Amino acid sequence: MFESINTNGSALNAAKTWMEISSDNIANANSSAAPGEAPYARKSVVLQEISPFEAKLNGVNGVKVENIVSDTKNVKTVYDPTHPNSDQDGYVRYANIDLTAEMTNIMVGQKMYAANTSALQANEKMLDKELEIGKI
Fold it and tell me: Mean pLDDT, to the nearest integer, of 108-127?
């Protein structure tokens, strides 16, 4: 029973990180880079199941944030010679953030969080019933 609580807890932490990273991406969607500097790189979360060995070793099972990956390849370049961050040719480099995809990621994170909160509440009810049965 307590293992399922650990599983839900790890999933709640993963969902929180998932939403935080997408929020960071949205916050930096319109940020530009000064000439010679790299623009904000879109980040994404890589989740991984906690291995049975690691679960036995640490006493926690479920899912973990394996890595946070930056996408440095996709850069949006816009011609705007009046922009303070334009280069000598008049181009400004922006992060290539798809707001629709990021909002979808936040909704997925919210659903992950809500599902695991519901499962955690169900575990709590089962533990209460076990204690109630034990009193009889």
Answer: 90
φ, ψ of residue 135 to 5 degrees: the values are -75, -25
pLDDT at 128 over 80: yes
Among 118, 117, 20, which residue's Cα sits nearest to residue 28?
A: 20
Q: Count H helices, E strands: the chain?
A: 3, 5
SS (H, E, C) 8-45: HHHHHHHHHHHHHHHHHHHHCCCCEECCCCCCCCEEEE
Over the stretch 52-72, which tens digit does the pLDDT of each residue have?
888 777 777 888 899 999 988
